Amino acid sequence: MSAANPDSPAAPHIPVLIDEVLSALAIMPGEVHVDGTFGAGGYSVAMAQAGARVFAFDRDPDAIREGQGAAQAHGITLIPGEFSRMEALLADRGVSSVSGVTLDIGVSSMQLDRAERGFSFQSDGPLDMTMAQSGMNAADFLNTAPEEEIADVIYRYGEEPRSRRVARAIVEARPLARTSQLAAVVRKALGHKPHDKKDPATRTFQAIRIHVNRELEELERGLEAAEALLEEGGRLAVVTFHSLEDRIVKQFLRNRSGGESGGSRHLPERVGLAAPTFAKPAKAVRAGEAELARNPRARSATLRSAVRTAASPRSIRP
């Protein structure tokens, strides 16, 4: 995947922090590894070339369909479905433990750069934004939800301080069907000058996308699934692109490595103390200048990684 920034210019898919991810995974030939977010296949192919037997997941039908060639060429098992379900989906294939799990969170370059998917306001398209291309889409939500709910979503997931003003404008402009319509409504509500460094619609688009795809819940459950699947000494590597995602991963690893006994807003407090399921996480890694020069979308990327201990996994929420 690439950075989840809907106002970035179109660019070819370049796996972000690929060298750093491979270093964190320390793949040994013959090991079983999971790529929870196949996207355009950059991580999966690199993992297979390093000698891993790779099982890759994606909930986007386009990624599954278009990834068949690369998967077959590199012996990758490509599985349609959410990475939060990796434990059950791998059990169906006789796999009960793995040596590594990689998650590259956010919207992929393929999704972002295709106007018909509705993720970006750079090109006009239908107001969709669904990764799985099913279920409630952005237009459904914006055209039916109460103003207060829309404001809460934009504030919580977009960290937009003027969310109530944006929500009021959206409700007054309904029905909305196109990305250009939504962008225009947000820009008018917040004020937009052509020379502004960041388009004011960015936060709102991010928030709506996260909400309709339940991205943060998916991440929480995916981390728990990875914990359950990883064998002793197994490696977890997670690349995030904004503070909401990174905060969840950081808190999870801190909690699971014994850094604190409590929970968080996203990961509820557990009853009683349990043995650490991960060793102390490695220091967070960000892209260097050389990578930023060839791939500007890597600017917001953060890699966090940790090694699984022998402790039993914590219970997974139903």
Written account of the structure:
By secondary structure, the chain is an alpha/beta fold. It has two domains: 18-110 and 215-307, Vaccinia Virus protein VP39 (Rossmann fold); 121-212, Orthogonal Bundle (DNA polymerase, domain 1). The protein contains 14 helices and seven strands. The chain has helices at residues 18-25, 42-49, 61-66, 68-74, 86-91, 109-112, 138-144, 147-158, 163-173, 179-190, 202-213, 215-229, 243-256, 289-294; strands at 32-35, 53-58, 77-80, 98-104, 230-240, 285-286, 302-307. It has a seven-stranded mixed sheet with strand order 3-2-1-4-5-7-6. α2 links the parallel β1 (32-35) and β2. The longest helix is centred in the C-terminal third of the chain and has 15 residues, at 215-229.
Keywords:
318 residues; alpha/beta; 14 helices; disordered N terminus
Task: Determine Rg (CA atoms, Å).
Answer: 20 Å
Oligomer: single chain
- What share of the residues lie within helices? 40-55%
Low-confidence stretches: 1-12
| CATH fold title of the largest domain | Rossmann fold
- Give the count of helical stretches: 14
Structural domain tally:
2
Which structural class is indicated by helix and strand composition?
alpha/beta
List SSEs in N-to-C order: HEHEHHEHEHHHHHHHEHEHE
- The CATH homologous superfamily of the largest domain corresponds to Vaccinia Virus protein VP39
Named CATH architecture of the largest domain: 3-Layer(aba) Sandwich
